Amino acid sequence: MGAGHAHKLYRHGHSPVHALPPHCKIAAVFCFVLIVVSTPREAVWAFGLYAVLIAAVAGVARIPAGFLLKRLLIEVPFVAFAVLMPFVAEGPRVQVGWLSLSVSGLWGAWNILAKGTLGVAASVLLASTTELRELLLGLQRLRMPPLLVQIASFMIRYGDVITDEMRRMRIARLSRGFEARGVRHWGVLAKSAGALFIRSYERGERVHLAMVSRGYTGTMPVLSDAAAGRAQWTRAALLPLSALAVCLLGWTL
Amino acid sequence: MPPASFAPSLEVSGLAYAYPDGHQALFGVDLSIERGERVALLGPNGAGKTTLVLHLNGILEAGAGSVAVAGLPVGKENLAEIRRKVGIVFQDPDDQLFMPTVREDVAFGPAAAGLRGAELAERVTEALERVGMAGFADRPPHHLSFGQRRRVAVATVLAMRPEILVLDEPSSNLDPASRRELADILRSLEVTVLMVTHDLPYALELCPRSVVLSGGVLVADGSTQELLCDEELMRGHRLELPFGFDPRSVSLPV
């Protein structure tokens, strides 16, 4: 069986951040990211303050810095482009050692790197303090279309089942002496993928049958209806509100 | 025993069905199951067992004939009530358990029927206790063993307090210990059971009465032990006992 995707990102704990209702946290992170993105890139100190805010939340959530930093690595492939910008952008150039870099390129790269990193850090924090299915519940309470939430929750539930099926098919191929070597074997792999699709589709039909048999009529019944109180919203709003103050300062100073 | 005036848990009469592609699966099935009975539905592959089961809660609509559950006819106007009364446990627990945790899965049926809050929580706990899985409520189903998943699948249906429990191949893929545990659970339930199975010793162990479905009709209905001892009947309908198993030698639990 799969080791459980839910545990890779999530870090179990009992901090005040963990205890906040998921929809408050999602809303807070979303607002925080919007505020960060709308900060002028020249206000370098503001991004420093944002980082301090994130660090403070991580501290309250008792998420170790190493854990957070390691998960930030996911960002690397996405910001590779930003690193190239100072070399390829036009405009006035500045000499750093023996390198000639574009000034606007440097600002562009900084802009992407800083905002990207802060956004990813906030999302990683959210993911490490909120369980996957709680996130889904949160999205549901934030009035995300129920169909999308259902699709996402089935992905979580059946991801492992389908990976398992894929693994069994691979073992069956290997056991019959098949090894994918080069283009000539792609046909076999494509057929396996097709078979996997059909099997998953049929499983979908069986699951639907099981759901209908237990009274499913198109909407998931609401199982837990824990609405967030004013205190919880206030606590969750601390992060975006302080960020907003920083952002406004960044625009006026 | 309930008074005799009670309608039987299940009353199937003259049920016939042909799939949209023209293949006819059932040719007039009559079956009546009293409250509290445990009945095994035996038959070779392709006999129409699954087709029959899907009629019991109105997933398939009868081409001819009728099905009634506890006196309530299966039809469009009372489908919700019928689906609450007929609890089907499907063969693959991965199809049956589709929610992120065991608790949510068991709650699904009663919640769909409108139960909320403490009442719902009580239902869930009760159902899980009856299958001995109360300690696993917050686990994701895919982290359980196959036998545990099968038991949770039974709980998801018990939580709806069904009139009749329909099990499709309940013993398939279970190791002998899980098989016995499931048998103990099923025996402890005071609910009408219809068990679809190829596992003849299991049928003998759990169900005093059996019916044989073959070629879309019921060809036999009687005491499980007598049916299993009827060699001609067994051979005629591709039913075979496991090697070395003699149904005459088994003394049945009373």
UniProtKB/TrEMBL annotation, chain A:
It is found in: Cell membrane. GO terms for cellular component: ATP-binding cassette (ABC) transporter complex. InterPro entries: ABC/ECF_trnsptr_transmembrane, ECF_CbiQ, ECF_transporter_component. It is a multi-pass membrane protein. The keyword Transmembrane helix applies. Keywords: Cell membrane, Membrane, Transmembrane, Transmembrane helix. The lineage of its organism: Bacteria, Bacillati, Actinomycetota, Actinomycetes, Kitasatosporales. Pfam families: CbiQ (PF02361). Its main location: membrane. GO terms for biological process: cobalt ion transport. This is Cobalt ABC transporter permease.
